[in-house]
Model the fold of this input.
Amino acid sequence: MRETEFYKNIEIDAEDKPRAAKALKSKGVEKHILIKEYLMTWRRGEVAKAIRYSEIASIYRYDKRIRNVLFKYVSYIEEFYRSVLLDSFMSATEQAFWRKSIKNLLKEHGNLNNALEDLPFSELLWQTQTKGFPAEVQSCCPFPDLHLRENTGALIELRNAVMHNKFLILYRGFEVCYVNGVDAGKSASLKANIYNLYNYLPKEVGDKMLVDINDCRKKRNNNDKTKWDLPTQVTVKV
Done:
């Protein structure tokens, strides 16, 4: 059985055994094995020792915390950009610079509010960057000065990964983005994609996001859960 494979060379406290059994059932055996194997790759060359179950449980909780934070700030972008468009064009919906997607939704719904509610996130971002879009409106929507197409594509992929509950620490589907301070300015890492998201947020909002991301790795009082035992090599420091 795959459960047997998971427990092989795992150190687990007696009080964590029922918690582990519950987690394997609700979150999946294979995902736990992948996390275990991920930890093992970091320890190659070190003195052989068992992986602690508390490490695996902490990584799972840590990843969930990051997803929750990113969900909050990606949602902020969606709400903020929609509000900018709605406030700017609610009474002037006939515009030559609308993308086809908005034009079709306007024809279907008859009003801009409902059209924007149905507009996909990707179309929302691309609309703010459309040629001919009013500069005074565009200036309200933060985005990077350089590599705009690549970085916007990367943000859309990050959003999709978060919304579909991908396990971000193990995810290898992020797009390359261009941000200062990470991998010589070009990277497809989770850290680079978080900084890329930062560049689409108002500065004060982005600064709060970075604080929230860093707080994800902190121990919190959870006496009824497995002890917090997060390996430093998986943490994202921004």
